[in-house]
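Weekly structure sync - notes
Attendees: PM, LS, DV (DV joined late)
Agenda: review two folding runs queued last week.

Item 1: First target. Sequence and structure tokens pasted below for the record.
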Amino acid sequence: MKSIKPLLLLTLIYLLLGPLLLWIEVSAVGNAALRQAWPITVIAVAFFAYHLLWLTFLDRLRSNGSRRLTQALLGGSVVRMLMALLLVVGYCFIMKEGHLLFAINLMTYYLVTLVATGLMTIKQERKASQTKQ
């Protein structure tokens, strides 16, 4: 699997982001934010599992020289957005409080993941285009 380096980078980002979000929330809201520790973990695991599959799929497309790589990148972004929406809706139905903090955590993970995977993809595409020349 060629995507081990991006996957390790995402792992590091998620390992740092979770405690950072919890620390910020406890500083801002107080101990009530401690109830967000479990939801932050669920968000991180969901995003990590999705990106493990997504990066593996992209590696296979790249290695086969598929012309559907752009479609896969756009489709992956749409699936990530739908996953985030489903997580918010599910949380709102299951939990009776903490919706705003959960939405902030989810949006932070979503944006950080969007930027990180976008930069990784751009770097990999530049590297692939330079090797073809």
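Item 2: Second target, run right after the first with the same settings.
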Amino acid sequence: MSGLIHQDRSAYDLMLNVVVGPLDLEQFVILSTGRIEVSAGASVDAAIIGASHIFRFRFAGLVFHEVFACSGVKTESRKISYGPFAEAGGEAELTFAGKGRYRFNSRMLSSKDGAGELREMERLAAKKPVPRNLGLDFRFPGGKSAVAPRTIVILGTDEREEVIFAKTAHSYPNENTVVFTETDFLSFGRIREPSMKKEKALCEA
């Protein structure tokens, strides 16, 4: 896909789309990618795109995508949309029938308040990647601010490899804000004493 890789957009335009099934990635400007292999049949692909990020989860025959971006998503697959998220942030929890549970939350901080967390994510992303952990760090050219917009992605598993997690940071220097997201996916076979405030059941893909 050709065209500008970055445009000044507002953090308040960010939306979450969860797409269950195939998704045509040709509609996005892909800037940086990575993958972790969790186990046989379980993997996660990460992509920094011109508008934000995409994760593609594969687990026991289930394939779904997390698209967090200011732009829309075109797909014939089942799509569940949330947002745009307000300054206080947003959250989503989904149950995939017979497969597992997905959780997402986002927070918006001022550049000053989020500086320490952003530096820590930068440090983690710079660490040498291993098969089940990786980091991506992309600085966008241009923009109205003297400071370049930036996206950082951290992807991995917990110590016992029972939970797949992802963390991202998206800086908006033109608005002096940073948006942080956290995602985790747990398989039903490894969940113990689940406690959920909100959930939405999905049919198997």
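Discussion on item 2: Confidence is low (pLDDT under 50) at residues 190-205.
Action: LS to circulate a short write-up before next sync.
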